[in-house]
Each structure stands twice: as C-alpha cells, then as structure tokens.
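Case 367 in the screening queue. Each case pairs one protein sequence with one candidate compound; here the compound is NAP. For every case the pipeline is the same: read the inputs, emit a complex structure as tokens, and attach any notable structural observations.

Predict complex for case 367.
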Amino acid sequence: MKLRYKIASGMLVFLVVAVLSLAIVISHDSACGPAPSVSDGAELMKAIVYRCYGSPDVLSFEDIEKPSPTDNEVLVKVHAASVNPLDWHYMRGSPYLMRLMAGLGAPKQTGMGVDFAGTVEAVGENVKGFKPGDEVFGGRNGAFAEYVIIPEDRALALKPANMSFEQAASVPIAAISALQALRDKGKLESGQKVLINGASGGVGTFAVQIAKSFGAEVTGVCSTRNLEMVRSIGADHVIDYTRENFTESGKRYDVIIDNVGNHPLLDVRQALTADGILVMVGGAKGDWIAPLMGPLKALLLSPFVDQEFALFLGRLNKEDLLVLSDLMQAGKMTPVIDKRYPLNEVAAAIRYSEKGHARGKIVVAVE
Ligand SMILES: NC(=O)c1ccc[n+]([C@@H]2O[C@H](COP(=O)([O-])OP(=O)(O)OC[C@H]3O[C@@H](n4cnc5c(N)ncnc54)[C@H](OP(=O)(O)O)[C@@H]3O)[C@@H](O)[C@H]2O)c1
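Case 367 output:
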C-alpha cells in the first residue's frame, strides 16, 4: 500500500509539474516590468535592478529609492555581497516553474542578490537585537545594492570579528546549505565517511570544512586544478573527476552530498553503504523538466531500497547563521574567495558564476 502510494504520488507530482510548466510558458510573455517609482525628495542609492528575465544583459546599475526601516526592520549599509547560482536562476526565471513564485511574465521583485555583510545604519523602534554601528551579515532579497532592509527576526546575525565583510558575505546561502545538507538531511556523525561531489565550489568548500568539524572522514571530488585547495581546507582524500569516476571506485560512503547531479542515481547508489544517505543539493540544469528528473527518480526508487535519497532545499535562518558564526570564530570554517567584482560589474560576476566552475565564492565589493 505504502509502495503504491509513493509511486502514485511520484507520478502525480510529475504530471502536475508538466502541466504547470506548460501553463507558465503559454502565459509567458517577454514584456518587462515597469520602472520603479521614486517619491519626491526621496534619498537614492545605487543598486542592481532587473525588470525582465534573461541573460546578464537584463541587469542594470541604477539609482533607486533608499529604503527606510519600519518598526521591526533593520537598515544595513552593505559593504560586500556574494553571488550564488540562485541569483542567475532568478535572473533567467529558470527553471520556468519558479516563475510561479518569481512572477509569470516579468519578475515581481526587481532587486537582485541575497547574501550580504555590512553595518547597521538605522533600526525600527521595536528592534532590540541590533543597533546602529553593529557589523552584521545575512541574507535578504535585493542585496546587490548600497543598502538592504531586513526584519530583525530573519536571517541576520552579528558578523564574527575575525572575518572581513567579504568573507562574511560569502557565507549565508552556501554555508547554510552545506550545514543543513550534512546535519539535517545527511544526519552526519563523527567517524562516518562522507563524499562531497563538487567540493571546490561555494557549497562544497563550506561542506568540506563543516563535515570535518563534525569529525567525519571527508572525500572531496573536484577537477585537477582544485585538488590542492580542497586538501588545504581539510579534505582527507580528494578525487579528480577528470581522471576517476567515484561511483566506479568500489569505495562506499555513509553520506554523499551531491552538489553537481552529474551521475545517474543507480550509479551513485553503488558508492553508498547499505543504509547510506544521498543528499541531492545541486542537479541537472534546464528550463523545463530536466532539473526535476533526479528528484522524481529518487522518489520512485526510494521505496525499493534501504538507502535514503534526500531532496534538499536550503532555508536561510538566524539560528544557523549563529552556528556558522561559532564555527568561524573557532577557526573551523574560513570562506574561500575566488574573485571579486565591484557593484557595477555584477553582470560579469554572474556570467562567471554561470560557467559553473567557481573556486569557492564570488564576492561583490559594494564600496
Ligand atoms: N537545493 C538547494 O537549496 C541549493 C542550495 C545551494 C546551492 N544549490 C545548488 O547546488 C549547486 C552548487 O552550488 P554552488 O554554490 O556550490 O555552485 P558553484 O559555486 O558554482 O560551484 C560549482 C562547482 O561544481 C564543480 N563541478 C563542476 N562540474 C563538476 C563535476 N563534473 N564533478 C564535480 N564537480 C564539478 C566545480 O568545480 P570545478 O571547477 O573543479 O569543475 C565548481 O566548483 C548549484 O547547482 C546550486 O544551484 C542548491
């Protein structure tokens, strides 16, 4: 009964997704949203704005109205931000299914970027946890801007004193995803063997360090040029994916964190222990159904095997920022920064991210 239920629900999800994608494309028009209005006498700030889905060419560097905090909000002067694949998924509105949330014909929110670090400039009258002058980091839509506004109780925390603004801005999405994938989905324990596929990117470089801090034996999979870097951040073993396919090595892992999704599920199974857990963080790229095929196969295969295939969606929150802050202060996690771009060159930063070979994090310097 349970098995039939799982298969039926898998098929149902597939059907619903197919119908919704079709509906989105039918209703899709490539018109751009309206230019934002600016109130008379309002203070302005520089920001990256987009009003249509598309390539990095849709991004513009503009003067828009500077926000001011309501009672429970904090206004942060941004010193640094960082780029995540999520940014270009929003920019392109791809996979199409995400336009159900992000806006059908044009993006509902014109701000770009999520991860930031900066200094609190002003707080609403009910805010108790932050004050002007505090150095903070966090995640909020519209972070590629001189200022960002965020409710006090959301993903905002004091910046660890031993980290620069650029380092702190590298953390939110990638490190929270790594933490939640290892701890909540992978249930990783000290002494266990974990393999991280895509160990040299944003999520991977944090996952290697967090897994080590849990006391795990860590294997990182990356390309030749990144082997030394992945070793230097704590991996016990490294596999060069240009020479070796980890699914064919005969070695087995208690937990696999897959940031790439480039191997068939049945092959990845061969590298898991009998009751091992695969956490699917990254997956196939595509506008349509391709990104959903991995999760769908996992859903359909799960009832027949003892291994667990965990779908993953990271969730930004204050509590986990504090966990990561502790790790940084204890010297157990240090962000790896690849390239830096100024705010007016976010389009170039995103072009670089879209190539899929970032070496750690890509940072946007806002000053
Ligand atoms: N589900 C969620 O909530 C969630 C959250 C965060 C991220 N993600 C997804 O997770 C993925 C990784 O994110 P990220 O921020 O780490 O991206 P990233 O910074 O762009 O890193 C991508 C990494 O993938 C590596 N890579 C490319 N091809 C590879 C291969 N064949 N085998 C092994 N590694 C390979 C690259 O290393 P080389 O240069 O060495 O090739 C690069 O370091 C993205 O797809 C992102 O959308 C999902």
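Case 367 observations:
- The chain has a mean pLDDT of 93.
- The longest helix spans residues 2-27.
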